[in-house]
Amino acid sequence: MGDQIQFIVEKLNQEPFRKNYNLISFDSLEPLQLLQLLSDVLGEIDPKHAVDIREELPEQTAKRMLSLLGILKYKPPGGVSDLSVFRQGLVTGSKPVIHPVLHWLLQRTSELKKRAYLARFLVKLEVPAEFLQDDTVADINKQYEELMEAFKNLHKEHEQLKTSGLSTAEIRRDISAMEEEKDQLGKRVERLKKRVETVQNHQRMLEIARQLRLEKEREESLAQQKQEQKSQLFHAEQRLQRAQVQLKEMQHVVADSKPESLMKKLEEEINFNSYLVTEKIPRELESKKASVYLLQKVAAEPAMTQADLTALESEINEINAQVNQLVEKRMMKYEPADSKFSMYRQQASIIARKKEAKAEELQAAKEEMSSLEREVEQKSSQAHELEGSEVLTEDELKQYVSKLRSKNTIYKKKRLEIAEITGEFGILQRTEELLRQRHEAIQQHLQAIEEKKGISGYSYTQEELERVSAVKSEMDEVKGQTLDNMSEMVKKLNAMVAEKKASLAPVIKELRQLRQKCQELTQECEEKKIQYDSCAAGLETNRSALEQEVKGLLEECAQEQSNYRYIHCMKRSLEVQLQRAREEMKAYVSPDPQERRRAVREQYTRIILEQENLGKKLREKQKVVRENHAPNMKQMKMWQDFEQLMECKRECFLKQQNQAAIGQVIQEGGKDRLVL
Length: 676
Fold this sequence. Notes:
Blueprint: H1 2-13, H2 23-27, H3 31-45, H4 58-71, H5 83-92, H6 95-107, H7 109-122, H8 135-164, H9 168-197, H10 202-256, H11 259-300, H12 306-333, H13 339-385, H14 394-453, H15 458-589, H16 593-597, H17 600-675
């Protein structure tokens, strides 16, 4: 334990923690500080866990730490094997729990960082099966799994590249070799340019080659777009087929169903679901809880030796023997008063077992039906990929449904027969056990009689001889039947081979003709494709030229429209200004004084006169202030001096009062001394 703590302290004092602990300070940490330290270490491994635990609840802290430790595959040591104890210790910050976790984390920090990083992308999100019935959810889940696999492959390649580790010298050599190759290619290009310049119309030929390259690239992109559109069309057709099939099924169900039947079906489903919720699932849950409790109890107990196991087995055997004896005594007594109750109990138990069995069978049938529906969808998509089609028509579907119904009734009858046979089998099994016990008792009695008579082993020898002779006769019969079956099988196989050859001969002949026709059609398709590509290229060039012309005309039209709007706005502003000038001129020339006052000129003239009068008043006020400035300043100085003089008198008066009070205290003290 001391070495463990010393290792933890050394690691925490290093980068990136730098805690500056010693053994005493680390051992004296409070539980909350220990939990914060563990959270810091986990935050170094996974940055999402670098949080202050004071800002979250203790349950949230424990849940967060337990989830990350589970991802990192931490297993508690033997002393803390119980998960509840470990969780409680993690919540309370117990040292026996925190110290081993810190030691384990600090031992393999780099490895755990890598594991935590991968867990962010590789911990699969479980989607319930009922949600996967939706096509969109299923497609997204499939893409999610594909991306996860792609990430795995990329991470493996990255790790391989890291381990391979090309040296800087090799990289420099590669760079220098590539630069030399670049220079050689540049010289070669220059030589080719000089050689081409001597050829007539070399510029036109270069332009044509450039256009050819561009057209080839464009052809590749168009082919890729065509392939993508084909795949989209295929997926859309698949969705359409599934929707049509679902629509047909719903129409068929609606056409054949009545409100009474639908209500009856819903009632049956509700009864079944209520039985599952109220009886079956709680009982299974209780049994699971009991088994989990027993397993936890067994796991918490110390390891058992072989001697303990043998003792337990012997005890179990003794208890089983006692139970069998008690059952036999009860059967031998068989009190008639309890016969009716026992019969009712037996019937009730049989009915309960049958009910549970039927519920399990129904649930299994539903799961099987859902799996079969998914398989049918997969098969239909595979058939569509192979250019197949759905063959069932409406009449055939009705016939198929009627067959299924008849088979369903037969199936139910067979299930009833199987249930009856199973009950009889249980009764016969019990009878067989009783007879076997009686037979053993008789055999023991017979052996005792043989020993008394001196012929021990006689009955056993006779039985062995009879059994051997019976086995020999059976083997002879089986050999004869096997030889006959083999000869008949060989004849049938030869006949089947000849029949298949005869039936396949015209098909093979027809297949040869179809292959030849397919080759001709393929050649014709290639020729048509070449014609189509050339025509499409010509039309595409014309379309691009027209698009450029239309684009230029549209830009010119937009420019003209903007000019028109600008001129129209300028015109409107000038008209407004002209209208205002006319109104001003009309008001100014008008003989009416009220109308003249509304004129802007008259308003501005009136405002100017008011401002001039205000300026005169302010200048007069300024003159008065200048004349009274010197006497006012002198008077203010006199008042300041008077204030200082009064302040000085107040201070002197206060000092005089303090000195008088001190003298009075001294005199009173002297009088007291004289009195004493």
